[in-house]
């Protein structure tokens, strides 16, 4: 069957389609049906009983794959490689799960995981799912304040962490960040478990912190606990328009079914193959495609601790693909742009044997046609853009290599996947004709594996995703579908920006800037960047009578964002202006400001209060090296 038959087959009978896919999962109690019309947006396989860790680990040991590598850790930063077999992974997760149970962590309890790219991060996630605890992984590049916000929202019983992360040339000590976060948070976890890495030994707080090895060494291994199909497997916080992140909930059964389907049908991966997603466990790509999906499918996953360039050079990706026989490779376009910048002719690619590689998958931000072309020319495999979000957990639109490689149109992530009825809507919610730009929405229900709600925030879930277009899920992206059904993702419709494939909230940064005593008003926009796609840029209006020099205030707000959100925000530039361009009702015209910064043509907003403010912005931007008004 080709893509068209598969998609139409799903559309004709979604219930039968998903019940068929569910057969690939080991159930403790099989679902009697797929879709349940309950909860704010529907639920999947809600009457089943199942365990994620069993499906990702134990069943493969039982099926004779115990000696196969489940995880290969490759760290060009430490110069080490390590392989963990499915049998070893089973033993490690069972012992950690047993130790957590012994300390009172059980079904539905939350556990925060703050870990770098080491196998123990996956062990921690799987150990939680083994006993029905709900994990929430926080990206290591986030600062203490962001961790504190997540601790208060998730209210974890425990934190599982490592002593440090490793950035090129820098050891990032995690314990001081964790201590500060726990101090700031109103909720206090019962205990923390620290994995001491050889690069840095953290000082443990007596009575609260325990050493990972001692903690799980003689623990009684825990069995897999069956949980209800709609039990949350995890919470993953993602950026919204405000400083309060959204806790995306992932329900267990749909997650298993959808991820398993995606491995074979989108990525062309079978049990025994090697799959590599060069992302981080702190992001959704890391949850779905470093940890869960490859393991559920019985494939080997690569945990890579390094960067596309500089660890040690722009050939690192190709070395890893060669050394471990990677079949499908997934990264962000930014990473390829970084490699291309260092090695424009792809000279280093020739140094490696890439015969195992069948395709390169790109997601996380728009894949610009130049980057795709470069990768196609030099890697000589299909380069597949696919589009999805933390909320969906797997691709909304892709080129399903495992079903049929469709003709690639550069700039388009191709077609919707089964489960997603993608529509382009006007402001009033009416479907728009082909090739017309509009809001991208998905007709409800969303497929298995997507979010059923936000953690402790059903109202926000409805408001953010369901209320604007009744009967649809609002993606927050704008774009169009061409005459042949190819989808194009053009921009966000909200104040979320995308920096090096990392989703960041300009609202969160504005909250930090506004907290500076000299700042009366501020705005943050995303401006085009040839490497990272977008970079944040701040505008500051200072309070009357402030005597601190502008440059000093800018330096201080840059330090504040790094300290309160984290280095990953990459907030490096701000300009002081007298006033911000606004509509007559007081809304800051961020999109117009971004167009001016990028030197793009723009229409004067009809509702602008004072057009002269745009000229002032253009002058200020020119002063810091931007092209200014087109
Ligand atoms: N822990 C602590 N700090 C971290 C971190 C982590 N896990 N990850 C990133 N940082 C820090 C970096 O050290 C850097 O700090 P600096 O300001 O002191 O230099 C900052 O956060 C920004 O990091 P990053 O976005 O990685 O940019 P970079 O300039 O170091 O590297 C690229 C540029 C393009 C090589 C890099 O962004 C990259 O690899 N991108 C791929 C993105 C990706 O995989 N995204 C996942 C979505 S699929
Ligand atoms: P995240 O939740 O971090 O995965 O970010 C999701 C957002 O990243 C989407 O809503 C898009 O704005 C953007 N995005 C992800 N993948 C793509 C893609 N292939 N093309 C264009 N934008 C993308």
UniProtKB/TrEMBL annotation:
Residue span, AMP-binding enzyme C-terminal domain: 509-587
Protein name, as recorded: Propionyl-CoA synthetase
EC code(s) of this entry: 6.2.1.17
Xref: PROSITE patterns: AMP_BINDING
Domain Acetyl-coenzyme A synthetase N-terminal, chain residue ranges per copy: 3-56
InterPro entries found in the cross-reference section: ACAS_N, AMP-bd_C, AMP-bd_C_sf, AMP-binding_CS, AMP-dep_synth/lig_dom, ANL_N_sf
Keyword Ligase set for record: yes
Cellular component, GO, one term: intracellular organelle lumen
Key word Transcription present: no
Taxonomy, superkingdom: Bacteria
Similarity remark: Belongs to the ATP-dependent AMP-binding enzyme family.
Single Gene Ontology MF annotation: propionate-CoA ligase activity
Pfam family, one: AMP-binding
Keywords of the record: Ligase
Family matches, as SUPFAM superfamilies: Acetyl-CoA synthetase-like (SSF56801)
Naturally occurring in which organism (per UniProt): Paracoccus zhejiangensis
Domain AMP-dependent synthetase/ligase residues, every copy: 63-443
